[in-house]
Amino acid sequence: MTDITIDLLDAKLQAAEARTEARVARLEALVENSIKNNQKAIADFREENKHTRRITVVTGITSVITIILGVAAFNATLLSNMVGSFSMGQSTRDSVKAEISSQNKELNAKLDKLTEAISKLSVSRL
Known about the structure:
By secondary structure, this protein is an all-alpha fold. It has one helix at 6-125. Helices cover 95% and strands 0% of the residues.
């Protein structure tokens, strides 16, 4: 075997150390680049997510407004139908009342004639 001198050993150690430092520097650069890419991706994701959140909020608000307007329209329709039914009932009541009144007058006239006829018959029998 050959004897290794201190100078040769130092040179080999320095060369190995230089290679290791170069590798570490490359790894550091890769890690820093990866961190920057991740930070950029996170920032992009947050920016895209802001738009999505806005759309979700606007859609929710629009849905609530639509539901409120739909319920209001339904209530207005029901109220209109109830008012119409009530008005129709009032007009039916008025027409029935008029018909009953005319029938009562006719019946009263017939009863008056009948009582006159009965009283004439009873007077003539006496």
